[in-house]
Amino acid sequence: MSEQREHWGGKLGFILAAAGSAVGLGNIWKFPYITGENGGSAFIIIYLICILIVGVPVLLAEVLLGRYSQRGPISTFKLYAKKHRPFWMAVGGLFFLTGLIILSYYNVVAGWSMGYMVESVIGNISAFSSSGDAAQHFNQLVSNPLWIIFWQFLFVAAGGLIVYFGVKNGIEKIARLLMPIFFIILLSLVIWGISLEGSEKGLNFLLKPDWSTVSYKTILIALGHAFFTLSVGMGVLLVYGSYINKTDNIVFCGIMIAILDTMIALMAGLAIFTSVFAMGFNPAEGPGLVFHVLPAVFSSIPHGGIFSTLFFFLLSIAALTSTISILEMLVSSIMDETRLSRHHIVIGASALVFVLGIPSALSFGGWSHIGLWNLNIFDVMDYLSANILLPLGGMLVAIFVGWYLSKKDVLYELHQGFGLTTTKRNIGRVWLFLVKYVAPILIFLVFLSAIGVIK
Ligand code: PHE
Q1: In this structure, is residue 2 part of a structural domain?
Q2: Which atom of ligand 1 is closest in space to residue 319's alpha carbon?
Q3: Which end of the chain has fewer CB atoms within 10 angstroms, the N or the C?
Q4: Which residues, including other chains, have CB under 8 Å from residue 46's CB and lie 6 or more apart?
Q5: CA pair distance 32, 190, nearest whole angstrom
Q6: Is residue 237 lining ligand 1, measured as CB closer than 6 Å?
Q7: Could you identify the atom of ligand 1 that is nearest to the CA of residue 23?
Q8: In angstroms, what CA-CA distances link 366 with 18, 70, 370?
Q9: CA distance 295 to 309
């Protein structure tokens, strides 16, 4: 290993950085639109169950594995896989690949949000008379390769700069600064949304379940999203976990991260659906919800430009604290395995991610006809990573912690910093049961049903 492993300044630093990773485009851009497409609160209920019985246990397993090994994913598997070592090292490689895929297209949407923030400041986002107008403006921008690649580049560079400064001076500092600002802006947008006339229709949509649209596919989407939104299943939390001190309570931290992430997704849903319904727009707009419908909503209210700027600033912060976590996972994996310096790796990895993202960036313009299964490159990346690679990664982490490591070591690591009262021992047992049996079996069943083996 080339440099001594850094650690977080404290527990709060870890919680904010990991919550920063978890809270991202998944919460503000994706959660509202997939909720809109999949039956509103019926979807939310399934999603919450997935978070509780699969997401949180696997999240804890991943953080635990990182703190236990004090290494990135590839080195961790190399060190502890006594049996089937090549297979497990390939799993480490799969995490790396998943990170590359997610980061490549994630930076594109992140770039849109930064571009939209500037568009809002110059007054371009508050003059639409319908969502059709707003959609046309959006399509014009995203099919312009210069616009899109410029913002994508800027976003990659911003993330690279933060990770360049390391764990404590880069990632933790930025998370401590940005997460509180994020929360205050989101809270003001929720209050604003609820105060609009007609917002009750949005509340109704979020509270009254419509079960008629629910199918196995819905469950797969909810499960995939639970992993995506918690940043579980590709080694990001493993790497963040490897920077935690042995005296910190990872059970508390893990639960806090999940609570913050879920609360923020629900708040974003509230802010968006109250305003979308109040202004009479369609909630099932798909990925364009935030970029087509909201600008039209902002156009139809007084001082819309200010809210629009705030909203896209919020989205950019959320995206930035997530992209840095993925980049850090890539960087840390290489740092563990080579003698290269952090600085060189950050520059190389950022350049690679930028280039890999270009096909996704062009998916809305010149390259929209290229793709697979009727999806463009961007959508293929999104579907593949969120619905297949992350649940698969989560299942493998659960199997590794539940079955490959010794039960004694795993529980010892869990209780370090957590404590050993009878209740805490019971929590440990329930957790291990969920990790060993419930999570892998459920994920597997959902996979089978998604590919049509079980009907
Ligand atoms: N959790 C992030 C979000 O909700 C996305 C992400 C996935 C980040 C996987 C890191 C790892 O947007």
Answers
A1: no
A2: 12
A3: C
A4: 214, 218, 219, 222
A5: 14
A6: no
A7: 4
A8: 36, 44, 9
A9: 10
Structural domain includes residue 455: no
Q: Which residue has the tokens 């390259």?
A: 367
Let me know how long the chain is. Answer: 455
262 touches ligand 1 (CB under 6 Å)? no
The rounded Å distance from CA 19 to ligand 1 centre is: 10
C-alpha span between 30 and 405 (Å, rounded): 35
Tens of pLDDT, residue by residue over 234-281, are 999 999 999 999 999 999 999 999 999 999 999 999 988 898 888 887
Give 304-348 pLDDT, tens digit per residue: 888 899 999 999 999 999 999 999 999 999 999 999 999 999 999
Q: Say how many Å lie between the CA of residue 411 and the centre of ligand 1.
A: 27
pLDDT in tens, 128-137: 877 788 888 8
Range of the domain at 33: 11-450
Note whether residue 304 is domain-resident: yes
Query: How far, in Å, from the CA of 139 to the mean position of ligand 1?
Result: 25
Whether 3 is covered by a domain: the verdict is no
**CA 21 / ligand 1 centre spacing (Å):** 6
Q: How far is the CA of 292 from the centre of ligand 1 (A)?
A: 23
State the Cα torsion 369-354-380-290 to the nearest 10°: -90
Tokens (6 digits) for 168:
């404590």
Query: pLDDT at position 454, please?
Result: 56
The domain that holds 158 is classified in CATH as 1.10.4160
With a 6 Å cutoff on the Cβ, whether 322 touches ligand 1 is yes
Residue 143 has pLDDT above 60, yes or no: yes
What per-residue confidence (pLDDT) applies to 2?
42
Say how many domains are in the chain: 1
